[in-house]
UniProtKB/TrEMBL annotation:
Protein name per its UniProtKB record: GNAT family N-acetyltransferase
Keywords for this protein: Acyltransferase, Transferase
Domain N-acetyltransferase: 3-153
Species whose genome carries this gene: Mesoflavibacter profundi
Lineage: Bacteria, Pseudomonadati, Bacteroidota, Flavobacteriia, Flavobacteriales
Residue stretches spanning the membrane: none
InterPro entries linked: AcTrfase_GNAT_prd (IPR017255), Acyl_CoA_acyltransferase (IPR016181), Diverse_Substrate_AcTransf (IPR051016), GNAT_dom (IPR000182)
Gene3D superfamilies noted in UniProt: 3.40.630.30
Domain of life: Bacteria
Cleavable signal peptide: none
Length: 163
């Protein structure tokens, strides 16, 4: 099968959102996605873009994406964070994940990054093996910490009450 990897455009965001929702179902959180097409357009293509997205096409149909953004590591400096690498179920196992990861690594390298990082669910053994086979180090002693939605509001409220 022939795949075309390219930078995403604003017009791709409906398909990108479909893949994000497909990933949420796969990760057993089908109702967790609150981002909209408009959010993706505004934050990916506005005055100060927050992310870059690569898409993979087969017969002009988007079948996979890799969404990345820059961050800064106090130890390493400029870093690319791979937020998600999503391949439609029917296209897995055909080398498409490798093509997208290759593109992310090449892009990061061209931008002078010292690290490319991402998270992977501990039960997603296929992804873990895929990344290990690419030379990635899986940090098993680290926990991912997040504040979301109501937890952010509660935190702000506790700050304001302390004033």
């Amino acid at each position: 099968m022939k795949f075309n990897i390219r930078f995403a455009t604003q017009q791709d965001m409906p398909k990108v959102l479909e893949l994000i929702k497909e990933l949420a179902v796969f990760e057993k959180e089908p109702d967790a996605v609150i981002v909209t097409e408009q959010d993706l357009i505004e934050h990916g293509f506005g005055k100060h873009p927050l992310f870059t997205c690569f898409v993979a096409e087969n017969d002009k149909q988007i079948v996979a994406i890799a969404l990345i953004y820059f961050r800064f590591s106090t130890w390493k400096g400029k870093t690319v964070h791979l937020e998600d690498l999503i391949v439609k179920q029917d296209y897995r196992g055909q080398g498409l994940g490798t093509l997208l990861l290759d593109e992310v690594i090449k892009y990061g390298y061209s931008q002078g990054v010292q690290r490319v990082c991402w998270e992977v669910l501990d039960w997603n053994t296929n992804a873990i093996e895929f990344y290990k086979n690419k030379g990635a180090k899986i940090l098993e002693n680290w926990y991912l910490a997040q504040l979301e939605g109501d937890a952010i509001k509660t935190y702000i409220q506790s700050i304001n009450e302390g004033i």
